[in-house]
Amino acid sequence: MQLAGAFPILQGKYGDWFLSGFIESLQLLGWALLLALPLGLLLAVGRSATSRLARAPATAYVQFLRNIPVMVQLLFWYFAAPQLLPAFVRAALYRHGAEFPCAVLALGLYAAAFVSEDLLSGLRAIPRAQYEAASALGMGRWQSLRRVILPQALRNSLPALASQALTLWKNTSLATVIGASELMYQTQKVETESFRGAEAFAVATVLYLAVSTLITGLGVVAERWRPVHAR
Amino acid sequence: MSSVLHDYWAYFLVGQYPNGPLGGLALTLLLGVSAVTLALPFGVLLGLARLSPWRALRWPVMALVYVVRGSPLLMVVFWAYFFMPGSSGRGNSQFATMLAALVVFNGAYLAEIVRSGLEALPRGQLEAARSLGLGYLQAMRHVVLPQALRNVLPSLVSQLVVTIKETSLGYIIGLTEFTFIATQVDSQLITHSTAVYTLVALTYFALCGGLSLLARRLDARSGPQAGPRPGGWAQARRAVPA
Amino acid sequence: MIEFREVSKRHGDTLVLDRVSLRIASGETVVVCGPSGSGKSTLLRTINRLEPINSGSILLEGQDIHGPSLGLDALRARVGFVFQGFNLFPHLTALQNCMLAPMHVLGLAPDAARARAMELLARMGLADRAAAWPAQLSGGQQQRVAIARALAMQPAVLLLDEPTSALDPEMVSEVLLVIRDLAHQGMTLVCVTHELGFAREVADRVVLIDAGRVVEVAPAASFFDHPAEERTRQFLAKLRSPFAQPTALEPAALHAKIS
Fold first, then answer.
1. What is the pTM of this model?
2. In angstroms, rounded to a whole number, what is the distance separating the alpha carbons of residues C157 and A127?
3. How far apart are CA B15 and CA B199, in angstroms?
4. Using 50, 70 and 90 to split pLDDT, how confident is the model at B85?
5. How far, in Å, CA of C169 to CA of C176, rounded?
6. N or C: which terminal CB in chain B sees fewer CB atoms within 10 Å?
7. How many domains does chain A have?
8. Residue C161 to residue B124: CA distance in whole angstroms
9. Do β-strands C213-219 and C205-210 pair in parallel, antiparallel, or remain unpaired?
10. Nearest beta carbon to residue A208 from set B72, B179, B193
11. Do C187 and C156 touch, CB atoms closer than 8 A?
């Protein structure tokens, strides 16, 4: 890497630390998304149920998780939740590194609440006329949903989902409080060892911005895919 | 959980005050309200700067907003820590650091909201104001900003909710806000983690949920309408007596 | 009062105004008409510098409006502008709309500004609607408030950019009557409009603009009855299509409408 030569901060073990932290952050992002998207879909389905009673669990979940800071949720899953497990399970968990799975769990569950919100608003954005047009062509309820409504709902939600992914990416930095060795954690490690705080943070900022810009770019592309309805 | 609450409620509420600096829930609220109060004018200034015709003003602000919005809040906190003069360890400087970080972070978001609010205004409004001979700043003050910021109050309350959640990051730099206090209690009790963190979660839920409800109520009141509602809004303005 | 000297304006590759030269005397009422896209609105907007020009000069009361001696805001205080879309300030009442600029640009005391605004609204027949919000007013009423707002600055000249084009037909006359009264009171008016019946009765001179060029300038009667240019004849003929309504004003019935 030619670049490493120009910036001493990126050399040797420091460079390795940054890289491993960056990769771990990306892994947190990936796994948390993998958890959040299906769960969010499930919650969205739950919240569009017809009776208030059926809607209640999903609504409660979303309301609860939205109003509690992400960091508190991270602390909860790492420090508090394992206490509910039997002792030997807990010991095994901590021995094998509970940081990563706890972080994925906390971040994914948090994001799922917002994902469900975005999916629902994507669904609500579809004009009544689309349902009518589909049934006027003879499509049954399930067919209309599958072929006409849901594809549009998904396309509608994509920009908002991209925005959630961006938030999730930034939230991975908080996993440092439970000791996950992601980018922020590694940056602090570099800073402590090299006494070059500004440079270390600059590198980390650039890495965060790189992925943020990528996700934002995807969001812009997604915006163009939105189905356009004539008024 | 009730025993935890019974023994530590004062500590949770105000930290070590009056035997030490203010902490706990009181500090969280103080930090949140201060941050939002300062972030709004900061955001308006940034939003105006983004739309100004001078490149020397526009580009640095655009760069700042881009970097701040693409970075985690924690990063902004660390940058603030770096640039803040004064030593670590003293309660005041941690509060100041956190406040600075929150103001810059939320200000950058508000700047975008203000900017799109300004751009959504029909161009004819500014033209009409300028055609009457009002200078640019006068036109902004009397015609453009009052309209663009009309829905400020409900948005401010929901921004407060977001900011209160963000104050929890103060824990990382040792600020004795609510979450930090909770971790202190947890480390003292060790075996009551579930109770402690459930208590913390419930408190935030009650606080933020309650404020969100308030924001929704306020939003419903100022609701969609063709023109401004006479009454509260009209009385609030003192620029043009009638 | 106003003088255009070889004024040209480009927009990209198109020539929006092509060496326009025109003189408007004090107290005159001039109507500018022409096909869409001819540059007539642009011409009007160059007078108060809402649009810049590329060459030539525009003089107001002998001073170059782009020159150093006349400031932009000072120019706009002397030149009143009425927009096609009214552009009233929705967060202020009708009265406050008319008071804003006199207070903050001319430095009038609130009481003086209020008195002036009320007097103007009364002249427009809207004294009882002074405390109304723009959203509560009809289009015709809003436009009359807009005219009062512009007049509150006591401008030397009033520019009107298609003042009735955005109005429902039954409200057109109430606004045209107000403009006619202003003309009779000796106000210098430059009005871009399609209302040719109005032009015929009220204008001193009529200007036809096409493709950025002044085609013909003539006193109202001869413009309509004996147009000198072929292009003018074509323009007038097109407007006398089978579907065009005659637009002569009937004072008595319409005065009853606005009082």
1. 0.71
2. 50
3. 16
4. low
5. 11
6. N
7. 1
8. 13
9. antiparallel
10. B72
11. no
Residue numbers in chain C where pLDDT is lower than 70: 240-259
For testing the chain A interface, which of B71, B105, B106, B178 should be mutated: the one with the most A CBs within 10 Å? B71
Concatenated DSSP letters for A19-62? HHHHHHHHHHHHHHHHHHHHHHHHHHHHHT-SSHHHHHHHHHHH
CA distances from C154 to C1, C118, C120, C127 (A): 15, 14, 11, 19
pLDDT-derived band at A227 (thresholds 50, 70, 90) equals low
Within a domain: A81: yes
State which residues form the domain around A184.
Answer: 2-224
The ranges assigned to domains in chain C are 2-258
Task: State which CATH number among 1.10.3720.10, 1.25.40.10, 1.10.15.40, 1.20.1530.20 fits the domain covering B2-236.
Answer: 1.10.3720.10
Tokens representing residue A94 in the block: 């901590």
- The amino acid at residue C51 is E
Residue in chain C closest to B134 (alpha carbons) equals C105
Question: Residue B18: is the preceding peptide bond cis (ω within 30°)?
Answer: yes
- C-alpha dist (Å) from residue B235 to A43, B44, B139, B215, B232: 44, 23, 20, 21, 5
For residue C253, what is the enclosing H or E element?
helix C251-258
Q: Are B211 and B164 in contact (CB under 8 A)?
A: yes
Q: Rounded to an integer, what distance in angstroms lies between the CA atom of residue A190 and that of residue A200?
A: 7
For position A122, which CATH number holds?
1.10.3720.10
**Helix extents (H) in chain A:** 2-6, 12-47, 52-67, 70-75, 87-95, 99-124, 128-136, 141-143, 150-171, 183-194, 197-224
- Tell whether B131 is within 8 A of chain C (Cβ): yes
What per-residue confidence (pLDDT) applies to A231? 41
What is the ipTM for the molecules in this complex?
0.84
CATH code, C2-258: 3.40.50.300
Confidence at A91, pLDDT banded by 50, 70, 90 = confident
A80–B209 CB contact, under 8 Å: no
Is A229 inside any structural domain?
no
Task: Give the C-alpha distances (Å, rounded to integers) separating B176 from A173, B89, B197.
Answer: 21, 11, 16
What's the half-sphere exposure (Cβ side, CA atoms, 13 Å) at A132? 3
Q: How confident is the model at residue B239 (pLDDT cuts 50, 70, 90)?
A: very low
- Which chains neighbour C (Cβ–Cβ under 8 Å, 3 or more pairs)? B
Domain ranges for chain B, please list them. Answer: 2-236
pLDDT band with cut points at 50, 70 and 90 for residue A70:
very high
Residues of A in contact with B72 (CB under 8 A): 170-174, 184, 208
Interface touch A80/B75, C-beta < 8 Å:
no
B-to-C residue pairs, Cβ atoms closer than 8 angstroms: 92
C11: three-class secondary structure by DSSP: strand
Angle at CA A155, nearest 5°, toward A151 and A156?
115
